[in-house]
Design brief:
single chain, alpha+beta, Aminopeptidase, 7-stranded mixed beta sheet, 4 helices, binds coenzyme A
Length: 146
C-alpha cells in the first residue's frame, strides 16, 4: 500500500469523515463531528491515502489522560493497516502532548476492533453492562500506558 499520511482533521475534511463514520455502529453525525472539532480538548486525526480520507479517529485530552471516542476506516480500505497506523501515530502525538494513558470503550462483540486495540497494547480494564443500544451490547473498557 502507498504511503498513508496521518494529520490533524480540518473543517474541510468533515463531509468525507462523516460519510465514513456513517458506515459504523454508534456513528456520530457530521454535526457531532463538527462540534467535537471545535472543542478545545478534542484531538481529531485523519488518515489520508491517495489524496482521499481513508479514516479518522477522535480523542479527547484532559490533563495527562486521553480517551479514544471513535475510530472508523472506510469499508473498502479496512484490513490493510490504516486503522493501526492512524492510532499509532495519533497516540505518539498525544504522548508528546503529555498524555500518559489512553482509555477507550469497545463493544464486546466488536472482535475486529478488540483485536486492533490488543495489537496496539491495550489491556482490558473493566466492563460496562448494557452500555450500548442498537444492537444491545456490553462495553469493554480498555487502557494503554503511553
Ligand atoms: C476497527 C477498524 C477501525 C480497524 O481498522 P482497519 O484499518 O481495518 O484495521 P487494520 O487493517 O489496521 O488492522 C489492525 C488490526 O486489527 C485487527 N483486524 C483488522 N481487520 C480484521 C478483521 N477483518 N478480522 C479480525 N481482525 C482484524 C487485526 O488484529 C489487525 O492487526 P494485524 O493485521 O496485525 O493482525 C475498522 O474495521 C472499522 O472502521 N470498523 C468499523 C468501525 C469500528 O468498529 N470502530 C471501532 C469502534 S470502538
Amino acid at each position: 500500500m502507498q504511503e498513508i499520511i496521518i494529520r490533524t482533521m480540518q473543517s474541510t475534511d468533515l463531509a468525507e469523515c462523516a460519510a465514513i463514520e456513517q458506515t459504523a455502529l454508534d456513528a456520530w453525525s457530521m454535526e457531532q463531528i463538527a462540534d467535537e472539532l471545535a472543542f478545545e480538548a478534542a484531538r481529531l486525526y485523519v488518515a489520508e491515502w491517495q489524496g482521499k480520507i481513508a479514516g479518522f479517529a477522535a480523542f479527547q485530552l484532559a490533563a495527562d489522560e486521553t480517551t479514544l471516542n471513535t475510530v472508523t476506516v472506510a469499508p473498502a480500505l479496512r484490513g490493510q493497516g490504516i486503522g493501526k497506523a492512524l492510532l499509532e501515530d495519533a497516540l505518539s502525538q498525544l504522548k508528546k502532548e503529555g498524555a500518559v494513558s489512553c482509555f477507550l470503550e469497545v463493544r464486546v462483540q466488536n472482535e475486529t476492533a478488540r483485536r486492533l486495540y490488543r495489537s496496539l497494547g491495550f489491556e482490558e480494564a473493566g466492563m460496562r453492562k448494557g452500555f450500548y443500544k442498537n444492537p444491545p451490547d456490553d462495553a469493554l473498557v480498555m487502557v494503554k500506558s503511553l
